[in-house]
Amino acid sequence: MGRARTIARRSFMIGSAAILGGVAFGVYIVRKPHDNPLKAQLDPGEVTFNPYVTISEDGIRLITTHVDFGQGVRSIEAALIAEELDVELDQFQPEFAAPDPAYYNTANGAELVPFAAFDDSFVASSVRSAAGASFKVLGLMATGGSSTIPDQYTKLRQAGAVARETLRLAASRETGTAVEELRTARAKVILPDGQEISYTDLAATASGLDPVTNVTLREPSEWRFLGKPMQRLDILAKSTGELKYGIDQNVAGMVHAAIRVNPRRGGTMNSYDASAAEAMRGVRQIVPVTGGVAVIADNTWRAFKAANAITFDWGQANYPEEMDGHWQILSDSFVEDRLDRVWRDDGDVAGSFDAGDVITAEYRAPYVAHQPLEPLSAIVLVSEDSAEVWAGSQLPRYVQQKVAAIAGLDPDAVTFHQQFVGGSFGHRQEFENITLAAEIAVQILGTPVKLTFTREEDFALDFPRQIGISRSRGAVRDGQVDSWELDIATASVTDSQSGRLGLPIPGPDGQIAAGAWNMPYAIPNLRVRAYRVPGLAPVSSWRSVGASSAAFFSEGFLDELIRVANADPMEERLRLVNNDVHRKVLEAVAEMSNWGGALGENRGRGLALVESFGVPVAEVIDVTMTDRGIRIDNVWVAADVGRVLDPVNFDNQVKGGVIWGLGHAMNSEITYADGMPQQTNYHEHEGMRLYQCPQIEVRGLENNPKIRGVGEPPVPPAAPALASAIFDATGMRLREMPFHKFIDFV
Amino acid sequence: MQIKVNGQVHEVDVEADMPLLWILRDELGLTGVKYGCGIAQCGACTVQMDGMAVRSCQVPAENIGDSEITTIEGFGTPDSLHAVQAAWVEHQVAQCGYCQSGQIMQAASLLAETPDPTDEDIDLVMSGNLCRCGTYPRIRAAIKSAAATLRES
What we know:
The complex is a heterodimer of chains A (746) and B (153).
Chain A: H1 17-31, E1 47-50, E2 53-56, E3 59-64, H2 73-85, E4 93-96, H3 108-111, H4 122-138, H5 148-175, E5 183-185, E6 188-190, E7 196-198, H6 199-206, H7 235-239, E8 255-261, E9 269-273, H8 275-278, E10 283-289, E11 292-297, H9 300-308, E12 311-314, H10 323-331, E13 339-346, E14 357-365, E15 377-382, E16 387-391, H11 396-407, E17 414-418, H12 432-441, E18 449-452, H13 455-461, E19 468-477, E20 480-491, H14 493-501, E21 525-533, H15 547-564, H16 569-576, H17 580-592, E22 603-612, E23 615-626, E24 629-640, H18 647-667, E25 672-673, E26 676-677, E27 695-701, H19 718-730
Parallel strand pairs in A: 3-4, 8-18, 16-17, 20-21, 24-27
Antiparallel strand pairs in A: 1-2, 2-3, 5-6, 6-7, 8-11, 9-12, 10-11, 13-21, 14-19, 15-16, 15-18, 19-20, 22-23, 23-24, 25-26
Chain B: E1 2-5, E2 8-11, H1 20-27, E3 46-49, E4 52-55, E5 68-70, H2 83-90, H3 100-113, H4 119-126, H5 136-152
Parallel strand pairs in B: 1-5
Antiparallel strand pairs in B: 1-2, 3-4, 3-5
């Protein structure tokens, strides 16, 4: 990876709320620890050791930082603490953290910098550290970028160990026994004579002690839970309907609301006619909100029904009305003026196309919606001098600030109650459901309002995945991939999101070519350029973000080059791969899939290898061409996250990522007509259903030098591996998603 | 009107066209029944009417009559799981879990009709229940395991 010469076009100070932070705030404030927010809310007799653990005679509370939208972070965060604290997984109450700078994400900032994940040079490390520092100073609390595990792996075990050692010290003080002679297990301190003192009985004594911070973390060989199959803490509640999601919450005295907002995103509402709606049963009030109106009613369905009875005259969007216009803007964007960054420039690309077999190709990736199954909702109560919010959010501190601004309050006066979320895939990185609910709440002070989106409204207001085009020119020589010029132009997720957050992000957008520029191959002549395209529909993070399109472009075209060279997709990648971690991932899927074995009639096999969020993932896919279309038979996946903390959840996340990647690559896109998204519900955008789901076999490897998260990395290889398999089976090359526009699936 | 849910009779004052889904969620507080799409495309709102799986978003109040409605709340509890729920726990099917009430109700209905379902049976009956997290491989495995348990009992 050190070979990858990168050229910053604008400035080296990239990234870059990040670097501004580290440089601007100074060493003192960067080193200064955040206060423990739990201190302010302790019950009498309760002790807290750090922002993650409290103990009182009533029990043990473990605070989990990140929002759980199905990826299982609440369970794994609690297990990280419990492992060192020496409590069993049923001996504590897990609680979501309230927004506070103490819970800043220590891993996310480092991901924004323009260096390869395995680049540990002085410059890369320094810039990562500066980026991390700015997240600390700004107190950025964020769930996303597969960053929970890298954020929490050390921090939470440390928190558990500090609490345990302080409790041992408390027991020593109470009993006069030397600390070294005290053991801990099952939420108890155990004396040499076998006598046991519960942690809960030590809370009072421990509260008078300074936390013991000089602790040593256990070796993985000593772990009781981590690294072994665990049962999710929420599995019973999720299998019995008992778990309350945000949409299920009920606050005393609340009213229900539905909205209609201009589906031409960003456009105004010129006028509306609510006369029919006003007369409907249960309707209390119809109030304006940004870009539309809200109906307040006495239940959800009556609010929906009345909202649908309102007619509107919507203003225009500031992007093209029809899809042709979107593709045209992209097509016109491969120009100097829109060049965002040359991410890689190995060898001599310009002079390398004089000989050999030169091929060119254009690839396309459409807008795609998030559409998790729980529709967006939020409950907001605004009073004279305070506000409360019940909703699930990946950015709780921003939400707190946004609601405070709408209500004319200080952020500290806004209490945010984090909720379980029925899927996100990036959707809850946005917060319009919450700001709209707050806009309604300020118009009915003192009354809590629950805003629920209809599925149709959720589709209409979804900020989709970036649309993009890539153009490749490549050459093979002597049966080997020799030269490749890869240009990628997409809408900028970073621009779009930063605009909504009110954050300036100077410098290149690291997502446009993510998963492509950092391809782990030593191709003699390779250049990767990213173009940032303005004037398109607003977009947002969609599970695996930039790599969901860029890696389709890169691995798809690499497959073309390899097949033109008459080389084997596995053999050629193994020849090109430039480090052992990626090589072992390839070798693992080769073994799992018995690569090279006979396939049989009408069958095909494809392969892709992508590194995103620091995780190399290789996928082999087998398909059969049947008389009803392509059937995906098997997928073999190998992923290296450094250390697999829960093999069950790892397996579930990887399979889910593959299904997400395949289902949307096959079946789904968002298109605009008359400025509005044409897809209104799942029948027009369904991802994958059960009957299309292949057999999937997963293997976790542990050679990665850093521990990583696995929510997103299995997504990007799925589309190019499927395209490769379909080519192998049929000779048809798919260069545009969704594939069902060009070939039938069973 | 009167409505029989999980063995109890409730009196509700609702319009003839109000869907069963919203009667259950908003009037009776049975939030284990989920709203996903409102047009019978996702299956999250699946309940049983007289033992048959139906999409509660498509059943207007006027069509409920004296049917016995069973929701996930009336199906099993953490202390006393139905065999299908026990299989769901054993296989750790749920990720976000939002679709799983509907998946479980649909699977139970499948197994009542077809005690030993083939892969094709499962594909056919379960493909109307959308899972955005991609838990399908575990749903298949859990159905087979629940089928085995139910056949033994």
